[in-house]
Amino acid sequence: MVAEALPKSPDAPLVLGLQPAALIDYVAPVQKDELEHILKEVNTHISATPFKKMAGGSVTNTVRGLSVGFGVATGIIGAYGDDEQGQLFVSNMGFSGVSISRLRKKKGSTAQCVCLVDDSGNRTMRPCLSSAVKIQADELSKEDFTGSKWLVLRYAVLNLEVIQAAIRIAKQEGLSVSLDLASFEMVRNYRSELRQLLESGNIDLCFANEDEAAELLRGEQEAGPEAALEFLSRHCRWAVVTLGPKGCIAKHDKEVVQIAAIGETLATDATGAGDLFASGFLYGLIKGLSLEECCNVGSCSGGSVIRALGGEVTPENWQWMHKQLQLKDLPVPDIRN
């Protein structure tokens, strides 16, 4: 299959995200009594329900957040289909200031995901990935990575070959690697492959939420967030376990910090909370902030996205985040939204 690459920009982005398959999210609010109706008449109901359509996926959320909310030069590596959804993905990322020159256009369909959100902010996600185009390991090149400083990844066993290839090239080019553990189901079902990846020593920064942390050490005597943090810190320079409304714990070298969450205790939609936390934490590392400050910036950006539907922060909520940064005497990015 011939992949059509977009023209390269002259300057390498500081942070690169690898999302093998471009993805479009359809995010819709749903009440409890509507669910049965949705299951019976999905097409009719979805067309009648107001929903948000945007470029989606964990890595997409993180690099877009870094670009729009923090003014960091970012790029994305992956593939999109020659369809309406693929064009939407490219347009959304390009409009957000993310370099799209490392995206390959392929004949076929772009991945899609329906996200239903109840009035408590709980999500049900149903992706359609099986027939979607995606980038392959042998399509990655040294030129994709040259000049960048960070590579952002999400763990997925179906993408393990391309993830490993990306890490190999990234390390050759001197990049640091950030890994998100994706979901507790992914950790539970493919834990041995994940632990092997972590134990390779090639992951510099790892993010896990509380459920993923529990699965990582399931069956062991000590399996709480603190034990998971200790395990991750043995293999990664920075380790972070997010605890939802309870904040997060993090470790770098021998330093351990715990901070409280910032923002709403009840999320409108928790989609992207961990992804945007990663945006803020990475921004802190890039700016040379302390471990505690990195966590606080991450908490501010994670708190910004849960105030509205979807994994893309609205301009109003970026303003809210910048105000929180000011209140905590943290550096405020010099950008306008």
TrEMBL record:
Tree of life domain: Eukaryota
Annotated Carbohydrate kinase PfkB domain residues: 33-310
Keyword terms of this UniProt record: Kinase, Transferase
Any one GO MF annotation of this record: kinase activity
InterPro entries membership: Carb_kinase_PfkB-like, PfkB_dom, Ribokinase-like
Family statement drawn from the similarity comment of this UniProt entry: Belongs to the carbohydrate kinase PfkB family.
Protein name, per record: Carbohydrate kinase PfkB domain-containing protein
Originating organism: Thlaspi arvense
